[in-house]
Design brief:
Blueprint: E1 4-9, H1 15-29, E2 32-39, H2 42-45, E3 50-53, E4 56-59, H3 63-94, E5 99-105, H4 108-118, E6 123-128, H5 133-139, H6 142-149, E7 153-158, H7 163-174
Helix pairs in contact: 4-6
Length: about 180
């Protein structure tokens, strides 16, 4: 079975489902959970504030103001991540699971694999948003990166389809 399970947490809607599955696996095998959240570089989240005119791009924030702007955003993201990790760690402890949490900054896929190696985990549990085609090409896929670069087993948890979306899929299939 698994002794250490890294659970990759992001700011998505699938987190609760991922955590529930991780707790279930940890309880079944008396494993420790290592909840991990990665704050991506600000350039991936916030493009440089500015505007595009016919003759080129013009930044609207310069120098020290830009540094202050980005530092405030980074601190807000880090605080939100810590609060999320603390909340999920509390739930795992209530369920009787040994848990710790880690927050890192960097490219999410790379950092998840790095934390997994440094903590010598047996399994990574990660959500999958279900992006395909151009969305996956342009936005990337953290779960795909982890699947191909992790030094341990990886369990991907598919995002749950909301009821309205599922109903529309059934209607579309029925009309074909």
């Amino acid at each position: 079975m698994f002794n250490k399970i890294l659970v990759a947490i992001d700011d998505g809607d699938n987190n609760q489902h991922i955590l529930d599955e991780a707790i279930r696996l940890a309880q079944a095998g008396d494993a420790q959970l290592i909840l991990t959240h990665v704050v991506p570089p600000l350039t991936e989240i916030y493009p440089e504030p500015g505007y595009i005119a016919a003759h080129g791009y013009h930044p609207t924030i310069h120098g020290e103001t830009a540094v202050t702007y980005y530092m405030e955003r980074l601190q807000a993201l880090e605080q939100k991540g810590i609060e999320l990790l603390q909340s999920f760690a509390k739930k795992a402890r209530i369920c009787g699971v040994d848990v710790e949490y880690v927050q890192a900054t960097g490219s999410p896929g790379y950092m998840i694999c790095k934390v997994a190696r440094s903590r010598k985990v047996d399994l990574i549990i990660i959500g999958r948003h279900g992006r395909t085609g151009l969305a996956e090409f342009f936005l990337g896929s953290v779960s795909n990166y982890v699947l191909h670069h992790a030094a341990c087993s990886v369990l991907t948890i598919q995002g749950q389809i909301d009821r309205h979306e599922a109903d529309s899929l059934v209607i579309e299939a029925a009309s074909i």
